[in-house]
Design brief:
Two copies of one chain form a homodimer. By secondary structure, chain A is an all-alpha fold. Chain A has three domains: about 70 residues, Arc Repressor Mutant, subunit A (Orthogonal Bundle); about 50 residues, Diphtheria Toxin Repressor, domain 2 (Orthogonal Bundle); about 35 residues, no CATH class. Helix content of chain A is about 70%, strand content about 0%. Chain A has eight helices and two strands. The first copy, chain A, has a two-stranded antiparallel sheet. Chains A and B meet through helix 5, helix 6, helix 7 and helix 8 of A and helix 5, helix 6, helix 7 and helix 8 of B. The structure holds a DNA duplex (30 and 30 nucleotides).
Chain lengths: ~170, ~170
DNA sequence: CAAAATTCGTAGGCTTATCTAACATTTTTT
DNA sequence: AAAAAATGTTAGATAAGCCTACGAATTTTG
């Protein structure tokens, strides 16, 4: 009884979003956002209410409880980390990245998510990688894996290395 | 009726594995591998059979049809790509990586999977990254994000760059 | 070869999540 | 304020998956 289904997580995420944007979450809007019938929403709201995640009174707007807010925030965070990785690093088109992040967010474990965050940060901050390295990856994707201009790339890398480390011992 | 559920994908994967290892897949072994009751297996086998993915005759071993084999191979490939990324790049412990790959494999889209493969290959083959860069990432994880020995790391990187590019124009 | 043990299938029930249809409440319009 | 429209709930059906319990088929063993 303690484990949240992917489905309820999705509802909570939508409520969080609607509350942020519209400052209230109405059942109709939840139904539209989820692409389901209103009856399904009522059903979900009852379950979320039972778990103490939302304040729910029939015929009224829904709001998140403090606990619901914490849970929603955690899910949104997972979503963001995955979306950023897919979009910024793998260069996946926004709609696809959005869609995939929406599915993966329910299944990735905390350790992997945490490490993925660190990995992304490391790529951007390590003098050996960074933005131009990522661009080199994009080029290599378009060139079907053959990275054709290594010398030039390495030259710009060396410049970056010098820049980044001029302040270090 | 055309879309495979995560569940059936898991069954197919287990059958594929048992067929590889034992050269046959018996219902009992499938039940054990999946951690479910035999009745659930019977149910799943009937569905897979209806879809033409397995050859199923009551009281006989199960085998994959050519179509089933193709589908299973695709799923196993997804699993492997995800596992390798989690384990080799993010350094996630084998059991956790295994477990997470098992869940994510049902939800990642083809484009992201394909690009993830390229990304992993690029990290290993680009002169600017490779094995020692990955080790630097691991150290930075243990040091809580502060990469302390940049100068030394950069030195070994430069050596690698020279090595890798000595044959290039 | 027949009894015992193992394996397999069927029947019926539970849960989650969805839908449609009908009914109830609230809001908007006239 | 009454009628119309929009919104929300309830009831009943469906589908996927799982379970237990029991009976059927196959294998193993004495």
């Amino acid at each position: 009884m303690d484990h949240m289904s992917s489905n309820l997580e999705d509802y909570l995420e939508v409520i969080f979003s609607l509350e942020s944007v519209n400052s209230e979450a109405r059942a109709k809007d939840i139904a539209d956002a989820m692409g389901v019938q209103r009856a399904s929403v009522t059903n979900a709201l009852q379950k979320l209410s039972q778990r103490g995640l939302i304040n729910y009174q029939p015929y009224n707007s829904v709001t998140l409880t403090p606990e619901g807010f914490r849970t929603a925030t955690r899910i949104v965070h997972r979503h963001k980390v995955l979306y950023d990785f897919l979009h910024t690093f793998l260069q996946i088109r926004p709609e696809v990245a959005e869609d995939t992040a929406c599915k993966l967010e329910h299944h990735i474990d905390d350790e992997s998510l945490e490490t993925l965050t660190k990995f992304a940060r490391f790529i951007m901050t390590c003098p050996r990688t960074g933005k131009d390295w990522l661009e080199a990856f994009t080029r290599s994707c378009n060139d079907r894996g053959t990275c054709t201009n290594c010398p030039e790339c390495i030259k710009s890398c060396l410049e970056r290395l010098d820049d980044k480390c001029s302040g270090q011992p």
